[in-house]
Amino acid sequence: MGSSTHVKLPVIDLSSKSLNLKSSAWVTKCDEVRYALEEYGCFIAVYDGVSRELRDATFRASQELFKLPTEVKALNILDTPYGGYTQPPMLPLYESLGIEHVTTTEGIESFTKLMWPSGNQSFSYVFSTYFILFSAVFSGAIVLFLNDFN
Fold first, then answer.
1. CA atoms of 30 and 33, how far apart (whole Å)
2. pTM for this model (two decimals)
3. 40 three-state secondary structure
4. Mapping DSSP to helix (H, G, I), strand (E, B) and coil, where does residue 44 land?
5. Over the stretch 30-73, which tens digit does the pLDDT of each residue have?
6. How far apart are CA 37 and CA 67, in angstroms?
7. Parallel, antiparallel, or unpaired for β 11-13 and 44-46?
């Protein structure tokens, strides 16, 4: 029998109120992000800029996307490693879809037209909105990490 250990990932609040450059908490936040990335390689980000409704809509849109036939998802071919559609034979329950230029409206619309040639306005809107917000959080985390190196 193998042992089961659970790693508890750090949770870091990246809400706009906690990212004030002039606050005394800024240095602490930088330290938290650096530590999490050095020790765990990742962290759970808490962010107040994404509403529950948008998060739920994003999950529903993702479910709709992954319910598409494999032949349709396989049309998404990218040259980047792990880009496009992947479903490794040794992991039959694993699928991933990379979206090129995911933080631009054009990138989302191009991907949407590839998956749904007749269009899917709801998917485009939800993913564009979500990933534009996500990129702001990601950029903030990078700034926090790099700031710690001065």
1. 5
2. 0.72
3. coil
4. strand
5. 888 889 988 999 888 888 878 899 989 999 999 999 999 999 99
6. 33
7. parallel
In this structure, which amino acid lies at residue 85?
A: Y
Contact assessment for residue 75 and residue 112, using Cβ atoms and an 8 Å cutoff: no
- Residue 69 CA to residue 52 CA, distance in Å, equals 29
Amino acid at 24: S
pLDDT digits (tens, 9 = 90+) for 101-129: 888 889 999 999 999 999 999 999 999 99
147, 145, 84, 132: CA torsion to nearest 10? -70
Structure tokens at 115: 């998956």
What six digits make up the tokens of 126? 């939800």
Measured CA to CA in angstroms, residue 106 lies from 34, 54, 58, 110, 119 at distances of: 33, 20, 18, 6, 13
Q: Number of H helices and number of E strands within the chain?
A: 5, 4
Alpha helices in 12-104 (DSSP H): 25-39, 52-66, 70-73
Q: Are 65 and 130 in contact (CB under 8 A)?
A: no
Bridging pattern class, strands 96-97 and 85-86: antiparallel
Cα(7)–Cα(101) distance, integer angstroms: 32
